[in-house]
Structure formats: structure tokens, C-alpha cells
Amino acid sequence: MTAPALDVRGLAFAYPDGHQALFGVDLTVGAGERVALLGPNGAGKTTLVLHLNGVLTAGAGTVSVGGLRVERTSLPEVRRRVGIVFQDPDDQLFMGTVRDDVAFGPANLGLRGRELDARVVEALDRVGMTAYADRPPHHLSFGQRRRVAVATVLTMRPQVLVLDEPSSNLDPASRRELADIVRSLEETVLVVTHDLPYALELCPRAVVLADGHVVADGPTRDVLLDEPLMRANRLELPFGFDPAAIDSLPR
Fold first, then answer.
1. Residue 2: pLDDT band by 50, 70, 90 thresholds?
2. Is residue 143, in this structure, part of any structural domain at all?
3. In a 3-state reduction of DSSP, which class is residue 36?
4. For residue 25, is it within any domain?
5. Which DSSP state fits 2?
6. How far apart, in whole angstroms, are the C-alpha atoms of residue 172 and residue 185?
7. Closest CA to 175 of 159, 187, 188, 191
8. Cα–Cα dist 163/177, whole Å
9. pLDDT computed for residue 111 by the predictor
10. What's 59's domain CATH number?
11. What are the Cα distances from residue 177, in Å, to 15, 92, 134, 171, 184?
12. What CA–CA distance (Å, rounded) separates 152 from 60?
């Protein structure tokens, strides 16, 4: 039987100051799923995500990626398998050209020559940025930089792509373009967001984290229509959003 893309079991974690951020979190995500991770600020979403590629290590419990347990000896391969696209693309883009930024990861693993060039072209093509390969990243729009940031992760050929607030600061056209890219991905995608309509658009499944616990896990449509759940966890649809747009979706 194929191992799940992500398998989190009994994950608990406390920071050095004593703050307990996660309390026995269980989460399984199958290969190719797109899942929204929702919750108010301070819920533990970032802490959970940082365990997925070993930036943080579990105080208790286990995390596995494609059957590989996250532990000190497996970190290089885990970090290849799980790519995180940060909220601010400038945290990931630091080279002189788009091409160099996208090549940086696989070059660090020893790829050279035609194989490296092919990886870069493939990744840029997947995000529609091939024509910008020789441009300095800081000359691009914010939306274009975010797409390049996605390419820097895709070029590592990850199994899991984590997108942190992917729609933030995007104009409507850039938001739509990124949504089209995300829907085209074959990789497992975890979308961490406060943008509930975007979660509904991209992710058939939603997981709600609150105070370090998973408090809901189900179809995104059902989660967003659960008014007591939404109210209890400080989740709000934007003003003017028509709930009928959710209710009309197929169950």
C-alpha cells in the first residue's frame, strides 16, 4: 500500500519559553490531495508546517513524508520532498536573475549542465515564467515574484508543496493566475491561509487548527457552512461574500 504524502501522529510541541503550541495533532494527507489549513492567528499552523520539513522537531509524536520519518538523519531528503513557499517571495529570491534563483536548489544538490538547465526550464514553464528567466527578480511584479518562488520549490521536484498565504497582496488577475497554477499541480498541496474563498476555490478538503488541536477536518464546503465552528474559531467569510456560492456546490 502506498504511504500517505503526509502522516502526522500525536504531534506535540512546546517552545523554550514553555508555550505549548501543539497538543497531539493527527493529520494524514494522501498523495495528490489539496488541503487547506485554516485557523486563527496563534492556532499553531506555522508550528505544524515547520515540523513537516524538520525546521522544528517533535517534542512528542511522529511526522512522516511519503513513508520517510522526519528525523535528524533524514533531513536532507525530507527537505527535498517538502517545499515551502513563503508568504513574502523576497524571502526566497536572492540571486541576480530568475534563472539563477530557480537553479539554486538543484545546483546545491550537485546538478550541473543540461540536467540543471532542463530542471529550470521545466519549473519556469509550469508557472508561466519562462520568458522572464534572465530578468532580475526585483524587476518583476509581486505576483510574478510569487510565481518564481513557486518555481524555486518545484525545481526540487518535491512530493509536497506548502503555500503560506498564497493570495496575500495579489491583485485579482495575479490571484487567478496563481489559482490556475495550483490547480494544475500533481504534487500534494497544503495551503495555509486566512483567505476562505481562496481555500474553497483551491482545496476540496479543509483542516481547522485551533489552540494547537485539530478541531475540524472535512470537505471545505461543509467546514465553511458550519456557523458554530466558524464562530468558535474566529473564522469569517469576507463581507459581501454570498454563502449561496458555497451552498450551491455539489456535496
1. confident
2. no
3. strand
4. yes
5. P
6. 20
7. 191
8. 15
9. 86
10. 3.40.50.300
11. 38, 20, 21, 10, 11
12. 32
Answer for the pair 11, 23: CB distance below 8 angstroms, yes or no.
no
For 170, the grid coordinates are 495579489
Per-residue pLDDT reduced to its tens digit, 61-82 = 999 999 999 999 999 999 999 9
Domain that holds residue 230: 6-88+159-247
User: What is the C-alpha separation between 189 and 207, in angstroms, rounded?
Assistant: 13
Q: Which three cell numbers stand for residue 140?
A: 518583476
Q: Which amino acid is at 84?
A: I
Q: How far apart are CA 116 and CA 13, in angstroms?
A: 38
Within-domain flag for 121 = no
Length, in residues, of the chain:
251
- Give the Cα separation of 217 and 206 in Å (integer): 6
- C-alpha pair distances (Å), 59 with each of 15, 20, 231, 246: 9, 10, 31, 39
Residue 250, pLDDT above cutoff 70: no
Which cell is 79 given?
A: 527537505
- For residues 61 and 12, is the Cβ–Cβ distance under 8 A? yes
Classify residue 154: in a domain, yes or no: no
| Grid cell at residue 149 | 518562488
Measure the CA–CA gap between 88 and 146, rounded to whole angstroms: 8
Which residue do the cell numbers 473564522 mark? 235
CA distances from 217 to 39, 112, 208, 221, 244 (A): 12, 43, 6, 11, 22
C-alpha cell at 26: 493527527
**What is the total count of domains within the chain?**
1
